[in-house]
Amino acid sequence: MDLIHKMKKYFLYILLIISSLGYAQDEIKFEAKVSKEKLGLNERLRIDFEMNKDGDNFIPPSFENFRVLMGPSQSVSQSWINGKRSFSKTYSYILSPKSRGTFTIKQAVIEIDGNTYKTVPITIEVTAAVDNPNAPKGVDDIADENLHLVAEISNPNPYLNEAVSILYKLYVSPKISVSDYRPIDNPKYNNFWSQDININRRKVEQGTYKGKPYRFVVLKKVVLYPQKTGALEIEPLTLDVTVDVPTNKQDIFGGRVYKQTHKTIAAGSRTIRVKPLPENGKPEGFTGAVGNFDFNVIPSKTDLKAGESLQSKIEISGKGNLKLFDLPKLKLPNSVEVYDPEFKSNVSTSISGMQGKVADNYTVVPQYKGKFQIPAISFSFFDPKLEKYVTLTSQEHIINVYEGPTNNNEDVADSDQIQKQAVAGTDSSFKFLKLNPDLQPVDSTAFFGSTAFYILLFGPLFFIPLFIVIGKKKKALEADIEGNKRRKANRLAKKYLSEAKKNLGHKEAFYEAMERALHNYLKAKLKIETSDFSKEKITQLLTSKGADSTSVTSFIALLNSCELARYTPTSNVTMQLDYDKAANTISQIDKQVKV
Q1: Taking the model in full, what pTM does it have?
Q2: What is the spatial distance between Cα 295 and Cα 274, in angstroms, rounded to a whole number?
Q3: Per-residue pLDDT, 493
Q4: HEC profile for 440-506?
């Protein structure tokens, strides 16, 4: 009996130690919760001061502007869930407002483990008396009070063509939960250049809304560049949200019963007031660039022969409206042949706006030996942070043409000079014209009985057998239905794979074209219709036809990539790799499969 008593005693000690350890690991919380934040003058308010660990020396707030009708009443609850102990102690009061207005219930204080904890002040709005003061709030009323859609604008007063970002945030109170949402009306950004920023994964974050704790998630990000001055209206984003609201009922397991409702919420219209760019100090040749940029004119080489080409690149890099202004033009002497520029852009758009580089590549071909100048070019932009115009000037470049015909001009040709060469005439300029033609009469031999007559008469007889052979061959090809299908599928596969190559950089068009090419190749090789396609059957048929496992796996992976890539972000590098992989896989299978 002594042994059993000691074992029970040790077991109790162990339970107490485990309980105290698990309890100590919990974060201590002391919170104030109210039954409603808005009530009528004839209604009652319940306020609970709740803690998750027992405390001492509880000091309630003074409850100014309220009468205490009941309290404090104290309740304690504790439970074990999955081996973990939970504890809750609550001090409750029933209050009645003394007058209309907006009032603050100040902090309550308690001591827990020798430390002092305070609640967050709560703001209560008291309105005029209501008709039915004891009626509980409905599900829709609770959802309205605890669900908010907000459009946060980074700069409500930008300059023309200055980036503005909008974050659409859905705020949800801890009192309710959201199970689903869908857009009903997406805003149209009239008088703005706009781009949506892709959100790969929506993350629930903790924040505050009007000073109260809320969870929120960013649903939509947009970057705007205003194209017009004055007051521009942003249309609201409207959502249909499925809301789960807790009720006072419990299920058979003791869990809270939730009631579901649908709410239509909108972010509300917003107005952005766009300032015009200042006229004072605006440089000549300004084309509307707004931001912060670098500017360069870069020749690919400075020494070459006449007739050879060089590339002269006008490049602008930085952060701003890179897609919305014209680049300065290159000016060169008339003795140099210049082709229309090729525009290249490498610009990415984030929530802060566009950044990257744009360039015009000019192909320049000098015609004569000597030297010519690529003159300095100016580029102007408006910096909204400095609120002033900035002008950048490129360096001059001297191009040395060391071999070729000589132009009778100065060594260095200026771009504003127009060089014209006179054409010298001589008395022998038209010697090639024959003044005495010495014409002879045409032979008047009769056509009938001539060689040409018999060729035209009997020639068709020799072509009849050839036409018969060609006709039989055509009929045989038309009768070969399976062969025609394979040939057509091969042609389509080549066509779509070629189309996929043209669409590199355009995700949807690229993967649609590549998927069609893969399917038509299978139709040609496996003689199956599109309706028969399944990855298992494709694997089985390719293997049975002699394709090795590596090629089959690669082919199936390409089909999966085409399906998934439409819904996931994909880079240009990934598209190029998928294209190379498709070409290589088709080539390998073509060698291995026995038809």
Answers
A1: 0.52
A2: 27
A3: 61
A4: CCCCCCCCCCCHHHHHHHHHHHHHHHHHHHHHHHHHHHHHCHHHHHHHHHHHHHHHHHHHHHHCCCC
Going from the C-alpha of 481 to that of each of 243, 301, 437, 486, 493, the distances in angstroms are 59, 59, 64, 9, 18
Report residue 111 CA to chain centroid gap: 51
Backbone angles phi, psi at 186, to 5 degrees: -90, 140
Distance CA 392, CA 535 (A): 59
Dump the DSSP string for 363-387. EEEE-SBEEEEE---EEEEEETTTT
Are 70 and 94 a contacting pair, CB within 8 Å? Answer: yes
CA atoms within a 13 Å half-sphere pointing along the CA-CB vector of 131: 0
First to last CA, the chain: 87
**Among candidate residues 517, 529, 514, the one with its CA nearest the CA of residue 562:** 514
Tokens of 298: 């870069």
Q: Which helix (H) or strand (E) holds 528?
A: none
Joined together, the tokens standing for residue 321 give 């409206």
What is the SS3 string spanning 249-290? EECCCCCEEEEEEEEEEECCCEEEEEECCCCCCCCCCCCCCE
Q: How far, in Å, CA of 589 to CA of 584, rounded?
A: 9
Within 10 angstroms of residue 389's Cβ, the number of other Cβ atoms is 17
Q: Which residues does 163 contact at the CB level (< 8 Å), separation at least 6? A: 223, 224, 225, 291, 320, 321, 352, 353, 354
β-pairing verdict for 147-153 and 164-172: antiparallel
What type of residue sits at position 189? Answer: Y
β-strands 303-304, 397-401: how paired? parallel
pLDDT at 429 (0 to 100): 43
Mapping DSSP to helix (H, G, I), strand (E, B) and coil, where does residue 564 land?
helix
The C-alpha torsion from 561 through 563 and 566 to 567, rounded to 10°, is -100
**Cα dihedral 406→407→413→416 (10° resolution):** -160
φ, ψ of residue 404 to 5 degrees: the values are 145, 180
Burial classification of residue 83, based on how many CB atoms lie within 10 Å of its CB (0-12 exposed, 13-18 middle, 19 or more buried): exposed
Identify which of 10-14, 37-41, 132-136, 470-474 has the greatest average pLDDT. Answer: 37-41
Non-local (6+) Cβ contacts of 527 within 8 A are 482, 485, 486
Asked whether 402 and 368 are in contact (CB, 8 A), the reply is no
pLDDT tens for each residue of 390-431: 999 999 999 999 988 887 654 444 444 433 333 334 444 445
Neighbouring CB atoms inside 10 A of 529's CB total 9
Helices (H), 179-228: none
Distance CA 359, CA 326 (A): 10
pLDDT in tens, 446-480: 666 677 777 777 777 667 777 777 777 777 666 66
Q: Which of 389, 380, 376, 207 is nearest to 280 (CA)?
A: 389
Q: Which residues touch 312 (CB under 8 Å, ≥6 apart)?
A: 297, 298, 299, 300, 330, 361, 362, 364, 374
234 - beta bridge partners? Answer: 270
Mean pLDDT of the chain: 80
Check whether the bond before 72 is cis (ω within 30° of 0).
yes
